[in-house]
Amino acid sequence: MSMAASTSWLCLIEACDSIRAGRYARFVFVGDYVDRGPDTRRVVDFLIERQPRGKDQFMCLRGNHDDLLIRAAKKERTDADLINWWGNGGERTLESYGVDDPSELPKEHLAWIDALPIKFTDHRRLFVHAGIRPGISISDQDEQE
User: Fold this and answer.
1) What domains does the chain contain, in order, with CATH numbers?
2) Where are the alpha helices (DSSP H) in 21-133?
3) Calpha distance 103→19 (Å, rounded)
4) Mean of pLDDT over the chain
5) How many CA atoms within 13 Å lie on the side-chain side of 1?
6) How far apart are CA 91 and CA 99, in angstroms?
7) Apex CA 109: angle with CA 87 and CA 115, to 5°?
8) Please, which pLDDT band fits residue 14 given cuts at 50, 70 and 90?
9) Could you give the CA distance from residue 62 to residue 144 in angstroms, rounded to a whole number?
10) What tens digit of pLDDT does each residue of 84-135 get?
């Protein structure tokens, strides 16, 4: 993959910053920061750095791949947890960090991912990673279904 393609996410954010021309804008990221490309570490570093800068300008939600990683990185993980994460792109994340086991990822990265919320509302819209079940109140929905 070319360097230009591997940093397209950063180019998109820079373009949005340019277009907003100093006006307030909120970025809502809906998860899966891991397992999706060669720059996982760089993406997570960027989000950790940018998120606290502007109050709620960078809202980051946890996705299912992020959950898979957290389970695979825990000391009490099962073989199934590790195999499931690995089979869903985990190897790309390990390569990005230059480690052999998800438990070797930086503790601050794992803690940040683990603490991410699964939903966000700005009182006009509800943001989630993968969707909601129609006809079921938000408070009654199970994050695993």
Assistant:
1) 7-13+24-131 (3.60.21.10)
2) 40-50, 64-73, 79-85, 91-97, 107-115
3) 40
4) 88
5) 11
6) 10
7) 95
8) confident
9) 12
10) 999 999 999 999 999 999 999 999 999 999 999 999 988 899 899 987 888 8
